[in-house]
Amino acid sequence: MTPEKEPVRVYLLLGSNMGDRRRNLSIAVSLLVTELAPWLFSDVRESQVLETEPFGMPQGTAPFMNQAVSFETTVPPEDLLKVCKWVEHKLGRPDHGPEYDESGRRIYHSRIIDIDIALYGDRKIDTPQLTVPHPQIEEREYAKRLLNEII
Questions:
Q1: Euclidean distance between the first and final Cα of the chain, in Å?
Q2: Which of the listed CATH numbers 1.10.287.110, 3.30.930.10, 3.30.70.560, 3.40.47.10 matches domain 8-150?
Q3: 90-126 per-position pLDDT tens digit
Q4: Which spans in the chain are helix H?
Q5: How much is the pLDDT for 98?
């Protein structure tokens, strides 16, 4: 990893709708902070935890607990994504890529933890692995609400 020259303010969105959802969020934040500690340059800001209805999932799917976290880091976005995926895997999320139906719409599944990079400074990133700002922030009112708490 080649660190960024200057720390960048990063915003993550976390969600869980399986098991002890609050605990899953808490463990995920702890693992992120521990793994990123050598490259953190500020305190970690955490929003409230908010229960939300599942987005784009079948009726009857368990609600999510969601939270936003923010910190300054020199970890490049691609490496930050790897750390997020590692935390998801560590908490038991299967490592399969996105699935789509016949019409090309994304199929969402319940998950023990989901960690998205919502914002990475003021950068715009569009690669096959990562899109920042997160493309669904605008359509998810709760995401804007949680992010605004810590901006």
A1: 27
A2: 3.30.70.560
A3: 999 987 777 788 988 877 789 999 999 999 999 999 9
A4: 21-36, 77-90, 141-150
A5: 76
| H or E element, residue 11 | strand 8-16
How high is the mean pLDDT of the chain? 93
The pTM for the full model equals 0.93
Q: Return the structure tokens found at 134.
A: 């997160």
100, 106 Cβ separation under 8 angstroms: yes
CA distance 86 to 96: 13
Residue 2 pLDDT > 90, yes or no?
Answer: no
**Residue ranges of E strands in 17-148:** 45-46, 50-52, 64-73, 99-100, 106-107, 114-120, 125-126, 131-132
